[in-house]
Amino acid sequence: MHTPGQHGGPGDTDPESEGDALTLGRRIRERRAQLGLTLDQLAAAVDRAPSQLSAIENGKREPRLPLLRALASALDVTVDELLLDEAPSERAALEIAVERAQRGAVFRSLGIQPIRVSKATNDETLKAILGLHQEVERLHGERAATPEEARRANTELRAEMRVAGNYYPELERAASQLLESVGYSGGPVSQQAIATVAEKLGFSLHYVANLPHSTRSVIDRRNGRIYLSSNLPSRDARAPILRAIASLVCGHEEPRNYGDFLRQRVEANYLAGAVLLPEESSVELLSAAKKERQISMEDLRDAFGVSYEMAAHRFTNLATERLDLVVHFMKAHESGTLIKAYENDGVRFPSDALGNFEGAMVCRNWTARTVFAQPDRFNPWYQYTDMAAGGTYWCTSRVEKAKEGLYSVSVGVRFEDVKWFRGRETPHRTKSFCPDDRCCRRASSDLTRKWESAAWPEAATPTSLLAALPTGTFPGVDSHEVYAFLEAQERLA
C-alpha cells in the first residue's frame, strides 16, 4: 500500500515543486512573447480562459498533459522543451527565485504582503528582496536548529497531501474491495458489515473496560483479536474498528520514525472514511448536489450515518479529484488553537516558520472562531471572510464536543466556488487582517496600560497540541501497559 504523498493530483503544488511550476510558466510566457502573441490569443488557440493561462504563466497552476500538449503545439515547441529545468533567461531565473521565496513558509510567517513581480520591477530590487529573504531564512534556521521531529514531519505530510488533492486511489480501491467482500449494495454501512470485514480478515472483536488508556484499539496479531473500549463515546464502533483494521489492510509495520507514524494515522483515518462513505455512492450524492447548487456537509453526514467531522473530512478527499473543487478544512479548539488543517485552495492558515499549522492560533474573525458565539448549535453557521492576505473565502462550520472541550469543524472554498454550496446566501461577513496582530490579538492601548503588569493567566490550550515528540515505537503509547494488557487477556482466554 502506498503511503500518502506518493500520488500526483490536481490542485496547487507544494513548495518542493513550485520551482518547476514557476519555470514552466516563465517558459510559456517567454515563448508567447517571442511569437508576439497576447494572452487572449494563446488562450483562444488552446480553448481555455485567459485567467487559467495567467495562473499557469504565474506558476500558480500546473497544466494537465492534454493542455500542455496543446500549448506546445500553439507555441511551436515540443512538450520536452517546455519542461526543461532551467529558466529561459537570467531575468526569469531571478523572478522565479523571488516568487518561490515569497511563497515559502518563512516569508508567509512574517505577515508581509508579497510584491507583484512585473517587467517594471528592476533587477536590483529583486536581488535585494531575495537577499533579505535568504538572511531571514538563515536566522530562522539558526533558531530552529533542532526543531521537533513531529512538527517537521507533519509539515511535510501536509504538503504531500496538498499535491495529491488529498485523494489516494490505492486506499479507495482497498475500501471498495472490503465493501465488495461483504456484499455492500448502497446506503449507510452497517456495524454488522464492519464486524464481518474483521472476521474475513481473521480477527474477532472484543470490547473491554480496561483498554490501555493511551490507546484507541489494540490488535493481538498472535491470537487474531482486536480489542476496543466498551466505553466508546458513541455507540457507533464502526470507525474505531476500521482504523484498527487499516493496519492489516495497508500492511503497516512498526513505524521507523514519526513521519511513518503520521502517515499510518492518515491512512487509517482515510480508509475508515472511504469505507463508511463509499466513493461512488458519495460522489453520486455530491455530484447531484453540485448540479442543484446545494452541496451540504449535513446531507453527506446524514446519508451515510457518520459524524459531521468524518463527512467534512471525506468531502476533502473527493472534492478536488471527483468534483473539480479546491477546498480547505479546519478543526479548531474553542481556545482558538488549530488542531487539524488541510488546504489546496490557497487559504493562508496561521503557521510557524516551518510551515506547521497545528498549534497555531486561528483569527477570531474566521468562521472557525465566530461559530462558537452562535446560540444555535443545531444548524450550520455560514460566513464569508475577506482576507487581507488574499481574496474572500466562504465557510460552513459546526461546533462539536469532545473530552477536551468544544471544537469547530469547518469546510471552506474560494468566493468563486461558493455558487455550488448551500448557505451561499448568508449575510454574515467579516474581515481578517491576520497575521497582523492588530487584527484580533492586540488589546486596546487603554486596556494594555491597565492590565499588562497585573494579569497573569494560565493557558487552557489542550496540552496534547503542544507536546513534543513522544517516545517509543508507537509515539504516545505506553508499551508496558499494552503488553501487560495483552498478557492478561491471553491468560483469561
From TrEMBL:
Keywords: DNA-binding. GO terms for molecular function: DNA binding; DNA-binding transcription factor activity. Residues 1-11 have a biased composition (Gly residues). The keyword RNA-binding does not apply. SUPFAM superfamilies: lambda repressor-like DNA-binding domains (SSF47413). It comes from the Bacteria. One of its GO terms (cellular component) is cytosol. Gene3D superfamilies: lambda repressor-like DNA-binding domains. The keyword S-adenosyl-L-methionine does not apply. PROSITE patterns: HTH_CROC1 (PS50943). InterPro entries: Cro/C1-type_HTH, IrrE_HExxH, Lambda_DNA-bd_dom_sf, TransReg_Diox_bact_type. Residues 1-20 are annotated as: Disordered. Residues 28-82 form the HTH cro/C1-type domain. Belongs to the short-chain fatty acyl-CoA assimilation regulator (ScfR) family. This is Helix-turn-helix domain-containing protein. It comes from Leucobacter edaphi.
